[in-house]
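Hello everyone,

My group is preparing for a crystallization screen and wants a predicted model to guide construct design. The compound we'll soak is copper (II) ion. Before spending weeks at the bench, it would help to have a computed complex in hand. I've included the protein sequence and the ligand's SMILES below. Output in structure-token form would be ideal because that's what our pipeline reads.
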Amino acid sequence: MRRALVFACLVALSACNGEKESASVPGSGVRTNIKRYPSTGVTKKFELTISEFDWEVAPGAIYQAIGYNKRIPGPVLEVTAGDRVELTLVNETKEPHSAHTHIVEFDTNSDGVKGGVAPPGGRVTVVWNASFAGTFPYHDHAGGSEGESGGLTAGLVGALVVHPPDDKPDVFHAVVLMDMDLTRYKSIPGTADDAGTITDGEFRGGHGFMHTLNGRAYEEWVPPFTAKVGQKVRWGVVSIGREFHTFHVHGHRWIGNDGVMTDNINLGPGTFSSFEWIEDNPGTWLVHCHVPDHMEGGMIGHYEVSR
Ligand SMILES: [Cu+2]
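Reply:
Good plan to model first. Here are the tokens for the complex, ready for your pipeline.
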């Protein structure tokens, strides 16, 4: 009886996988039907300055950050599929740093691990082709004195957005999910423990201390995402911290990476997802990670849809 049940489950699973493999979802990063775009003949140039600065994760919570262009996350790099990109990094810190970029095509000189690293006080230019559409992470991978994860936790993270040339949205929202680290706070007005017990302050922890949407924590502080009814709204969500997260949007639904309808996607470290809809549901909606202490730890914001 049990064996028959297991067999039935296996059959169901393989049928399910077969369905996923043949799915074609534009902009969703499916594993088959990957579309490689021909060159546009255009070279886009970006320059990012890497420096140390104070970043306000939540009101009064000052983070000793290292980031691109004095912000967490770094600027959204927006290009068209088929573009060639020259990305120059100017490193004003005392450690080597880089911008390793997912999915794009490059050689090891532009990988950001051994090649493509900006030395302390120096600069480097990396070159890659944005041949595939979607939203992907870029992040430090140079492995300075704080190791491979030090730059990520300090704030050296960002999103690359590659739009198909013939399919641009009316509204695009890039979302970077990132975990902060208690040891990097210069000041934090009040803290609670990981269980959320607030003794003398206002900020609940989560694992390590606060989780962010685009570098900010809590719905009063995360700038609201906006759209109007009738617009084609595309989201590109990148997860780049050390925790697993979900991204949940109230009042909406879409086709997830696995080809199945969802309103809440799973994102492990270094993963990403793009999805879209034609907006038809006005109101102020919550967007948040569904891990309870991540949501309580700040990974929550608003999506405001007007008529
Ligand atoms: Cu989370």
